[in-house]
Every structure is written in structure tokens, then in C-alpha cells.
Amino acid sequence: MLIGREQEQKRLLEALNSNEPQFIAVYGRRRVGKTYLVRQTLKSKLLFEHSGLAQSDKSGQLEAWKSSLTDSGMKNAETPSTWIEAFDMLKSLIKSSRRRRKVIFIDELPWLDTPRSGFIAALEHFWNGWASARDDVMLVVCGSATSWIINKLINNYGGLHNRVTGKIHLKPFTLHECELYLKSRHIAMRRYSILECYMILGGIPYYWSFLRQGESLSQNIDRMCFNPDGELFSEFNSLYASLFRNPQPYISIVTILASKRVGLTREQIANEAATANNGMLTQVLQDLEYCGFIRKYSQPGLNVRNCVYQLIDPYTIFYFQFIARNIHHDKNYWSNMLESPTYHAWCGLAFERVSMLHVEQIKAALGIAGVASVAYAWSTPATADGRRGAQVDMIIDRNDNVINLCECKFSKQEYSLTHEDESSIANKVERVSELTSKHKSIHVTLITTFGVARNSYSDIFQRVITAEDLFMP
């Protein structure tokens, strides 16, 4: 059963029922459910299905291609020697089919593009020279290496330029969709625990599929992430190795960003990584952004070249905060860390990231869903004349001349504002107003789990957004 994905499913069905050739690219973060979406939507409509092999050379890929042709009903298929020959065999299969719609599904397409294999040229020849002239062919391709899909297919400036007729960017589940998923699997979990689970796993359905009935959240996380036999015990290295042929530069960047709450500019990243600030760094940052591990944003007072890069993938943040630090291989590490200073520091950071991933829900709760805006974290250092520095968890800079200065506070009860909080927020308002348009009003907004306790300081907040708001569809 598919949870959510209504628009993505609708797009696939529209292509299926079309009377024109269709070339659909489905892309998104690894484990986000791309293959499941295509299979559940198209099901028995598939004439040919194939998946690229991880870490395999050209000969291994072509051998697997022959096997997929055999599984699809081609008799006496032989292993092709080139990709041109492989696609010629696929043409023969299509020609022999009596189906009204010939649906071809190639999963993990980037893995087929091994060095000097000629795969892209063969795909181009197949589509441009033959399939695009047939109104009965629907080609669906998937890939977790999102940067490859975007650069080699969607933004291709060669023979495949503008050949993709539809693109589906499959994003992680929202909190609302995770709640629906748990209900579909008859797992009882209150929203506070769902939120905490999202802070650990993000919205990756594959990760959530390992949660078990009858176990508390802490028991589930200990088993999944800290037990050597756990499903996610080695996920970090597998994740990056599966997406990038040389994963080390990517791991180096996320390692640096894991300790930076607001993020770093590319120049700062280059300095900390002791690497050249060149095209290679551009490619690594772009790949990480396309795959959903980091995000890039601009801040007031900085030019476009000084955009900030921020780590936003909840699982990666959790890995560096806890899994990587479990040097004694404690199987109950998560349970033993609850209520520790490290745990509370992580809660604040992780809740900020979850809030940033649900900006649309926050805007809806504020009644500004239709107002154009940009959201970013922000910081500024102390000044020489003694004014304090400031760090803002989230700013929603709106086109209706309002700025929501958002404080994100994770709490197990109503958040109680202190005099120190009020002083800190007043300083943030002052510092933000120095770098933004004088025509914009600043609305101080609290984003927290259970709301705010009323006291002499709480009136500083003009709006309060709770976790309930983050669960909106």
C-alpha cells in the first residue's frame, strides 16, 4: 500500500495512459521509495524491468541485462557485448509484444554508466533513433545518484537534451506521512515519539520499515542502530558508498558540517577540509545538495558567492552525534544516553532541522501558505563596540514585508521563557533588523513541541507553532 505519493502516482498513470512516447525520470535520496512507487503504480504493466548492479563492471552489467530479458520472456537471449547491442535486444522484445503500452523500467540507471562503457551514447541512440518515434513506449528510469540523473538526463545538453518528458523528484516522508505509515503497520506511537523518531531517521520509509510492534522507541533504535546485527548499524558507510564512486570527499564535507549549527560558506568548508576551492568542491557540494544531505541558502548581507551550506539530513546528524561515538559498541547506547547533556544538545539541533524540513507546514499554520518567502538560519558575530553576537534558528523572509524570526525549542512540556531568553531574543531582533529592509516588520515566532507557558516574558512571541502544526498534511 502506498502512503502519500498521490501526485507522483498521478503523473505515472498519466504517462501510462498517454498516446505519446514517454521518458520519465524518477529520482531522489537512496531508500526513499522510488522503486516501490514505480512497482506499486505500474505493477503488471511492466514489459521489461532491470536494475543496475552496484560496484560491477560493464561485462557484469551486460550479463545481468541478458538475465532480465530472459525474465521478461525473451527466449534464447545471449549476453550482449555492447550497450548498443543490449538496446537492440530490448527493441526486439518491444516489437514482439502485443501489449498496447510497452512499459520499460530501468532501476539504478547510474550504475549502468560504468567508465568507458558507452552506455549514455547507447541510451541516446535507443531513445532518439527509435523509441521516441513510437507512441506505445513508456520508459521509466530511476536512480539514487540524484546528481547523475539531473546532470546526465534532466540537464543534459547533448543528445538527450529535453528528451525527458517527465521528472518526479520523490522526497522523504513528512511527519504526517510517517504517522500514516505507522498506522498502516499497526504500530502505536504517540506524536511526541514520532517526532523524536523523525529527528533520528528523517522521513526515509526504508528506515521506518524496521520499527517493530511491542518495542519502545528507545528499544527500536538500540536494536536498529547500535546492535551489530541491526539493520542500520552499517548504514552510514553503505549509504555514501552506494551514491558516490569515491565517497571520501563527501564524507569529509558532511563530517565538517555536522558540527556547524548554522553551516559554512564554501570558502570556510575548503579551509576546514584543507582542499582546493575549485570545481571539484563545487561538484561535491552540488551532489550532496541534490541527494538531500545538505542545503544551500543565502543570508542578508552576503552575496550569492558566499552562500551557506548546512547539513540537514537527520540520520547523518544522528550518526555523528551518537553512532560514531559508540566506540565501546554498547548495544544499549541510545537508552543509556537519554537525558545526557549530549542528548539534550542533539535534541535542540535535530528539532531545528525537522522544523526546517517542514517550512510549508509552518507557513500554513501562520496563514501565509500562499506568500512567497525564503527560509534560512542566520548568525552574526559580536561587534567591536561590545554588542553581542546572535544566532537565529530560522528566519522566514516574506514578500509581504514581514520577517518571522523563529526560535525552535524542543521540550517535553510547555516551554517556559526566562529573562535570559527574552534578552537574547531582543538582541536577535536588533541584529537582524540591521541587515534587513527597514520596511519589514519582525514577528518573533516560537516553534516548540507543546506550546509556551504563560508568564511575564511569554508575550514577546507574536505566534506560537507547536508539533501538532508540523503534523499537518
Q: Total strand count, please? A: 13
CATH class of the largest domain: Mainly Alpha
Shape annotation: globular
Number of domains: 3
| CATH overall fold name of the largest domain | Arc Repressor Mutant, subunit A
- CATH-derived architecture of the largest domain: Orthogonal Bundle
Number of helices, counting only DSSP H or I runs of 4 residues or more: 20
Largest sheet features: 5 strands, parallel
As a percent range, the share of helical residues equals 40-55%
Report the radius of gyration as a whole number of Å. 25 Å
Could you describe the 3D structure shown?
- The relative contact order is 0.09.
- The chain has helices spanning 6-16, 34-42, 58-71, 83-96, 119-129, 146-154, 175-184, 191-201, 205-208, 217-226, 235-243, 248-257, 266-273, 279-290, 314-321, 333-337, 341-356, 359-366, 419-435, 467-470, and strands spanning 22-27, 46-51, 102-107, 137-143, 166-169, 264-265, 294-297, 308-311, 373-380, 390-398, 402-409, 441-448, 463-465.
- With 473 residues, the protein is of the alpha/beta class.
- Helix 19 (419-435) links the parallel strand 11 (402-409) and strand 12.
- The protein has 20 helices and 13 strands.
